[in-house]
Amino acid sequence: MLTGFKHRVIKPNPKYTLTITSSLTIHEPNNIKAALLHPGWKAAMNDELITLHQNETWQLVPHTPNMHVIGSKWVFKTKLKPDGTLDRLKARLVAKGYHQIDGIDYIETFSLVIKLGTIRIILTIALVKHWPIHQLDVKNAFLHSNIMEDIYIYIWHNH
User: Fold this and answer.
1) Per-residue model confidence (pLDDT) at position 159
2) Nearest to 151 by CA among 56, 66, 92, 67
3) In terms of CB atoms within 10 Å, which of 41, 117, 148, 154 comes out highest?
């Protein structure tokens, strides 16, 4: 049986018809070296590092052989305004959590995630009641909780 996928036929999903397409030519880099060549992405990376430092997210320590060090990577995203024009370039430094070992880097995990059905209900109520809907992008969000384990992350950054 031949399917549309095998013939590379891709139909847009109708539930995403309200998404904005933009003719913006700024491409999101797929590696750090490409990002460092663009002044906007480099500035976004520096902003992220400054914010992490100001929030005392980490403490620099010398590497010792008994440490289990987790890698990190940069994630880049172009943020657009509702009209499709550039709002800002966003860079996030994230830990490669899949390198963590249960009992060493963490004991248990919990991630509160909102369900898509909840978002649909809220949007439906807002539309029925003619409430204005605005998009909110939090520049940096930090959980206010203590981590009991020592977690060591390798961060590579070139100014």
Assistant:
1) 46
2) 67
3) 41
pTM exceeding 0.70: no
Q: Given this model, what pLDDT does residue 131 score? A: 93
Tokens of 129: 């009641």
Q: For position 12, what pLDDT does the model report?
A: 60
Contact 153, 71 (CB under 8 A): yes
Q: Is 98 helix (H, G, I), strand (E, B) or coil?
A: helix
Residue 110 CA, chain-centre distance (Å), reads 18
Closest CA to 49 of 41, 111, 85: 41
Write out residues in the chain with pLDDT < 50, as ranges.
159
Q: Tokens representing 52?
A: 């992490």
| Burial status of residue 136 (CB atoms within 10 A of its CB: 0-12, 13-18, 19 or more) | exposed
